[in-house]
Amino acid sequence: VQLVESGGDLVQPGGSLRLSCAASGSTFSTDAMTWVRQAPGKGLEWVSVIDDSGTLIEYADSVKGRFTISRDNAENTVYLQMDNLKPEDTAVYYCNIGTYWGQGTQVTVSS
Predict the structure, then answer these.
(1) Among 24, 27, 1, residue whose Cα is nearest residue 77
(2) Quick one: which H or E segment has residue 105?
């Protein structure tokens, strides 16, 4: 399985971004997908998870109400809509399936 994240950028506080994670491999539609982030100088922080059908979703308290995870199994893609971004959301964002990880996409929230 290969995962490729995209959509990271520099954005002002209060702004929005939509991250995408495109997956190759035959197991995408049967696996839960997770977003994880790593802020500068800090460890990995779990952000959100969506099950294979898209019906079971959970968020970290730090992003609840601001981030929305979704998936399109026909396109083998999972998304993370991030609204009302804060400087503390600055991090490299990774998507994950099982033991597979993407290369990450940088999100910087700064004025």
Answers:
(1) 24
(2) strand 105-109
User: Which token pair is 86?
Assistant: 């804060």
**The token pair that represents 108 in the structure block:** 């910087």
Structure tokens at 49: 């998870």
Of 69, 63, 68, whose CA–CA distance to 90 is shortest? 63
Q: How many CB atoms lie within 10 A of CB 60?
A: 15
111 in Cβ contact with 12 (< 8 Å) = yes
Q: What is the pLDDT of residue 27?
A: 66
* CA atoms of 84 and 43, how far apart (whole Å): 23
User: Mean pLDDT, consecutive 10-residue segments, the chain of 111 residues?
Assistant: 95 98 80 95 97 94 98 93 98 94 97 95
User: How far apart, in whole angstroms, are the C-alpha atoms of residue 46 and residue 93?
Assistant: 10
